[in-house]
């Protein structure tokens, strides 16, 4: 019976990893396709931290399994009983502490980069509602809701986030951005998408019964397409269309 359980558990783990590895669509794209310098910095910091901490997880699990089989009670005998090893305890405390200190350096740099954006090319006010997003472009006098945010590729976009009801969270994994939108308070975030495309996100704060359907769409276009989109939003004919009508 025990062998059957081990076999079933192994099969479950194997097929779980196989499903992730062979999926037609990636489960998430923030590791495989980070968009922009901030997202790449977040991914690099994640890989570095994983490389630093994973050996502790593997070592502790291996030692646990070894101890279970090596020192278990046997027929006609007693299970081994022992405790305390000062040298091992000191090493097991000092080495993880040093690892934490080392990983704290790039983590602090990444967090600072997230908090302090470079010079902004476009400021967008993001306002959370139950259960949709409103976007305002104060420089251009444009505002709309329940539509995709449109931004130019290769430009630094600064977000000023707030909410009119409950706490929401604006999260687009490909940009490495996840920031709360709180009522009565403005929070900030930024990103830079290098390539045009449609990027998906989701409200990451449980904000009510339709929280699961509070999606985020960001349409990254070329600077020329962005100017045309602005003209349309402001009610004027886009330059290319106007020129063609002459």
Give an account of the 3D structure.
The chain is α+β, with helices and mostly antiparallel strands and 246 residues long. Helices cover 41% and strands 23% of the residues. The chain has helices at residues 2-21, 37-70, 86-115, 223-233, 239-245, and strands spanning 122-129, 132-137, 142-145, 149-152, 157-163, 168-172, 177-181, 187-191, 197-202, 215-221. A hairpin with a 4-residue loop joins strand 2 (132-137) and strand 3. Helix 2 (37-70) runs antiparallel to helix 3 (86-115). The chain starts with a helix and ends with a helix.
Identify the notable features of this structure and list them briefly:
246 residues, five-stranded mixed sheet, 10 strands, 41% helix, 23% strand, elongated
Structural class: alpha+beta
* Stretches with pLDDT under 50, minimum 5 residues: 237-246
Profile the largest sheet: 5 strands, mixed
Residue share in β-strands: 15-25%
The count of β-strands is 10
Number of helical regions: 5
- Share of helix, binned: 40-55%
Radius of gyration, in Å, reads 26 Å
* Order of H and E elements: HHHEEEEEEEEEEHH
Bulk shape? elongated
Give the N-to-C terminal Cα separation: 83 Å
Give the rounded overall mean pLDDT.
85
Strand order of the largest sheet: 3-2-1-5-8
């Amino acid at each position: 019976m025990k062998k059957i359980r081990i076999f079933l558990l192994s099969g479950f783990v194997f097929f779980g990893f196989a499903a992730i590895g062979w999926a037609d669509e990636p489960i998430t794209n923030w590791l495989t396709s980070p968009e922009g310098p901030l997202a790449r910095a977040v991914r690099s910091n994640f890989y570095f931290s994983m490389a630093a901490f994973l050996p502790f997880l593997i070592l502790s699990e291996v030692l646990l399994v070894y101890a279970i089989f090596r020192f278990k009670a046997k027929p006609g005998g007693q299970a081994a009983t022992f405790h305390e090893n000062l040298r091992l305890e000191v090493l097991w405390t000092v080495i993880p502490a040093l690892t934490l200190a080392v990983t704290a350096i790039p983590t602090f740099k990444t967090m600072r980069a997230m908090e302090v954006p470079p010079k902004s090319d476009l400021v967008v006010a993001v306002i959370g509602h139950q259960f949709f997003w409103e976007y305002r472009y104060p420089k251009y006098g444009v505002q709309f809701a329940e539509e995709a945010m449109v931004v130019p590729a290769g430009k630094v976009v600064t977000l000023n986030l707030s909410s009119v009801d409950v706490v929401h969270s604006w999260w687009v994994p490909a940009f490495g951005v996840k920031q709360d939108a709180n009522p009565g308070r403005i929070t900030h975030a930024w990103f830079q998408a290098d390539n045009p495309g449609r990027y998906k996100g989701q409200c990451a704060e449980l904000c009510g019964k339709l929280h699961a359907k509070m999606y985020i769409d960001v349409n990254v276009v070329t600077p020329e397409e962005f100017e045309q989109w602005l003209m349309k939003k402001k009610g004027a004919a886009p330059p290319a269309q106007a020129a063609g009508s002459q």
